[in-house]
Write a structure and sequence with these properties.
The chain is mainly alpha-helical. It folds into two domains: 190 residues, no CATH class; 128 residues, no CATH class. The chain has 14 helices and six strands. α9 packs antiparallel against α11. The structure holds fe (ii) ion (FE2) (2 copies).
C-alpha cells in the first residue's frame, strides 16, 4: 500500500549556512582548460562513464510499494524528510552545474562537454529517486521552481574542482558507510532507499575520480604553495560543514542506530585519506586537537540553533550568539593552522 498523504509541492527550502548551494562558474575558462597532462586518465574515465553501469539501478522495486510509511511519525518523520530534502537538493545542485557546464562547453571542449553530460545524467537519476522517496512521505520538491528561485554562488573553475571533488568523495563515504552499517544491522533499515546506496555511491566515486583527473591535469592546482593553502581551506570547509550537519541531524542517525559522532569521524577520516590521491596536502586528523575542536564547533553550532529557535528579543539572541560564533571561528582558524600532511611526498604509497 502506498501512503495516502497527498504530495504537496514544495519549492522553498529553508536556507541556512549549511544548506546545499547552487553554483555557477567561469565557463569560458573551463572551455579553454589545457587537459593535455591528464588526457589518458580523462579518456579512461570517459569510457567508464559511457558504460553507464547503473543504467537499470534506479528503479523503485516492490519494497517501496508494499508498505505504508505512516508509522514513521513526529520528530523521526521530520528528521528523515529533512535528510531526503537536503540530499535531493544537493544531488540536484550537482545536476544543474554539470548540465550547464556540458551545455556551455559543447563544441568548444568535446571531452569535458560529454563528461559533464554523463555526470548530469547520474545526478538527475539520484535527485529524481530521492524526490520519489519524498513523495512517499507526502512531500515533493518542485525542482523547476527551485532552479529559478535559488541564488547561484559564483566559484572560479579551480574552486569548483576542489569543492566538487571533495563533495563527491565525501558523498561516496557517507553512502557506503551507511550501507555497510545497515548490512550488519538490518533491523535499522527502516526504508528501502538504503538498499540502493552501494551502487549509488559508485556513481559518486566515479564522479570524484573525474574531478581528480581534472585536478591533476592542472599543475597549478597541486604544484604551487597557493594550491596547498587552498587544499587545506577546502578540506576544512567541507569537513566542518559535514560535522555540523551530522550533529544537527542526530535524530536521523539515531533511527539508523548509528552514533553520529563516530559516523562523522569515520567519514572525515576516510575522505581525508582518499583526498591524498588528488590534493597536494591533506589534514592531520590524528592531531589530538583535530576532532576535539571540530566537535566543539558542532556543539556550539547546535547551541546557536537552539538560541535562534528559542524565545527572546533579537538583540538578546545576538548577544548570546556572539561568543559562540567567535568560538567557532577561533577553532576553525586553529584547525586551519595545524600542520598538514604532505600528500605529494606520500603519493607513491597511497592507493
Ligand atoms: Fe549523486
Ligand atoms: Fe555525484
Amino acid at each position: 500500500m502506498v501512503s495516502t498523504l497527498p504530495a504537496a509541492p514544495k519549492s522553498a527550502v529553508e536556507e541556512t549556512l549549511l544548506t546545499p548551494r547552487f553554483y555557477t562558474t567561469d565557463f569560458d575558462k573551463a572551455a579553454e582548460m589545457d587537459l593535455s597532462e591528464g588526457e589518458t586518465e580523462l579518456q579512461a574515465m570517459l569510457t567508464e562513464m559511457r558504460a553507464d553501469y547503473n543504467r537499470h539501478h534506479f528503479v523503485r522495486n516492490e519494497a517501496f510499494k508494499q508498505q505504508n510509511w505512516d508509522h514513521i511519525q513526529g520528530a523521526e518523520r521530520q528528521a528523515f524528510v529533512d535528510y531526503l530534502e537536503r540530499s535531493c537538493v544537493s544531488e540536484f545542485s550537482g545536476f544543474l552545474l554539470f548540465k550547464e557546464l556540458s551545455r556551455k562547453l559543447k563544441g568548444r571542449n568535446p571531452l569535458l562537454a560529454e563528461m559533464f553530460g554523463l555526470m548530469a545524467r547520474d545526478e538527475a537519476r539520484h535527485a529524481g529517486f530521492l524526490n520519489k522517496a519524498m513523495a512517499d512521505f507526502g512531500i515533493s520538491l518542485d525542482l523547476a521552481k527551485l532552479t529559478k528561485k535559488r541564488t547561484y554562488t559564483f566559484f572560479p573553475v579551480e574552486w569548483v574542482i576542489y569543492a566538487v571533488y571533495l563533495s563527491e568523495k565525501i558523498g561516496y563515504w557517507r553512502y557506503i558507510l551507511i550501507f555497510h552499517h545497515l548490512e550488519k544491522h538490518p533491523e535499522h533499515k527502516f526504508y528501502p532507499l538504503f538498499n540502493y546506496f552501494e551502487s549509488w555511491c559508485q556513481d559518486e566515486n566515479r564522479h570524484g575520480d573525474v574531478f581528480k583527473a581534472l585536478l591533476r591535469s592542472q599543475p597549478n592546482m597541486w604544484k604551487t604553495w597557493q594550491s596547498r593553502l587552498w587544499s587545506r581551506f577546502f578540506l576544512l570547509s567541507v569537513f566542518a560543514t559535514h560535522s555540523l550537519t551530522v550533529h544537527e541531524r542526530g535524530t536521523f542517525y539515531d533511527m539508523l542506530g548509528l552514533d553520529a559522532t563516530e559516523f562523522d569521524t569515520a567519514v572525515v577520516r576516510e575522505t581525508n585519506n582518499t583526498s591524498a590521491r588528488a590534493f597536494p596536502v591533506i589534514l592531520n586528523v590524528d592531531h589530538p586537537e583535530f576532532f576535539k575542536r571540530l566537535d566543539r564547533c558542532a556543539d556550539r553550532n547546535l547551541k546557536l540553533k537552539q538560541i535562534a529557535e528559542g524565545t527572546g528579543s533579537k538583540l538578546w539572541k545576538t548577544v548570546r550568539k556572539l561568543p559562540l560564533i567567535a568560538g567557532i571561528v577561533g577553532d576553525l582558524l586553529r584547525l586551519y593552522l595545524i600542520k598538514p600532511i604532505d600528500a605529494e611526498a606520500m603519493r607513491a604509497t597511497v592507493r
